[in-house]
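User: quick one
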Amino acid sequence: MNKEALKNLLYRMADDSLIIAHRNSEWTGLGPILEEDIAFSSIAQDKLGHALALYSLLHELGEADPDIIAFTRNEKQFFCAQLVEYPIGEYDFSLVRHFLFDTAEKIRYELLQQSSYEPLAKLAKKVSSEIKYHTFHAETWIKQLGSNGNEESKARIQSALNDVYPIAFSLFEKTSFEDAIVADGIFVGEETLQLRWVERVTSIVTASGLTLPSADYSVHYGGRNHYHTEYLQPLLDEMTVVFQIDPSAEW
Amino acid sequence: MYGNISIVDQAIGKKNAQEDPEKLAAFQAKIDRGEKIEPHDWMPADYRRQLIRMIEQHAHSEIIGALPEGTWITRAPGFKRKMALMAKVQDEVGHAQLLYNAAETLGKPREEMINDLLTGKSKYSNVFNYPAKTWADTAVIAWLIDAAAIINQVTNSKGSYAPYCRALERICQEESFHLKYGYDNVVTLATGTPTQRAMVQEALNRWWRPIMHFFGPPDIASVHSEILTRWKVKMASNDDMRQQFFNQYVPKIWELGLTVPDPELRKDEVTGKWSYGDPDWDEFKRVINGDGPCNKERLAVRRMAEINGEWVRNALKKPTAKYTVPLS
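Assistant: Done. Structure below.
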């Protein structure tokens, strides 16, 4: 098995989880209703757990300790998609991002249950059992604020979809390891994932009385190859500010 | 997290004269027998009013209390701390939800309570009007403010209003985890590098006075406090709770080699009572009345969250639905 290809995939997934966890946690105390505050925090905790599990797999493959990987790299060393980097914006933006991101995560982890890398296949089973609640939550709210909502909520969700849907394709950007990943059976590949994602997203969006904009897939590419939005480095600066006081200390 | 809020309705008891004496006597007898009052039981208007006031202030304290610690979630050092702090602050918001439900059983809708918070009509615990300046502040808050809250809440969970007691029992279980997390965090800093140690000592110095204020000023005997005690709404004096806090936590602070910024703090070995320096009760009053370091900021953040989320709440409203009191 191509170890570098495997690590590349794990880094992409782990960094996505870490950064979206960080973003979702920013809703703590600020949600539109208390119940949503709590839900976003729960989801953030799960994502942080996924990130830790993935960094632990990397650690087993010879990479540094999870805390060191997560809290000492700069943006040029990150593999996350640009989708997860954007600030939380208003609730419509965060909800639509959560819906698009978690739909992709759900399919990715379902597919990864067949991975030739046993520890990843095992982790994928565990994570899948959590992510189904994340997509259930997202889909319920998209419907609630779409076809079951009022004029304003529907317009807001539609507008957020128009903005976020094109950015979401950043999740499926390939790296130079793609062929090796597919050839070694580590993962079926970003193309398959994207096809299934478009299908699933289209069905939920249509059922919610909303439409999808046309999107140029590649505009928001870059993250997987270390080209990030201007939002990532400030996020990392904030995330590591205490840890960096003394990275060798126990916190 | 919560502290005794010392602004009690001075009019308590005045309306008792208008209550049906037989019902009032039966109500008192029930409480004296150690039974709890459920939402649909008869209760004096003053009892209802005081409880709404108390429970909603407690609920507000939980959501406002999520703010000073919440801002450190994005800065928590390492996976373990980030995860624990997220879960802790989430718990606090969950407590607000439980408590608003408990208060709603008395007839005041959540929306109205939140409006009263935003207009300043309803208060929240004073302690959250102080800033959490460093990571060590969150450690001190999670340990000592939560410890103080547990003392207060365990006491109140023995009160007479059943839905509030049930909420408090569950809250206290969660708070005891917070306290363990906070203590572990303080121990890590206090036994860490010189920088970490200095951080935690400075944080303790900053938080000591708000902690002293947390239990409220020494009680003054009055008619209303006598009635509230008889009704098992007020379960212990502010000073008794403060003494309990000293007993349980000052030795632990000293054990860690940390100091308390009060030269007058000492235990009288004969009486077992602690004496302490005046924590400036004028400051306490000033802060309660809106003139604290973070009052404006806290309410502004809460207001922003309410305004930004209004469209979501509107979209959930069903014109045909009737208001129902939650189960609690």
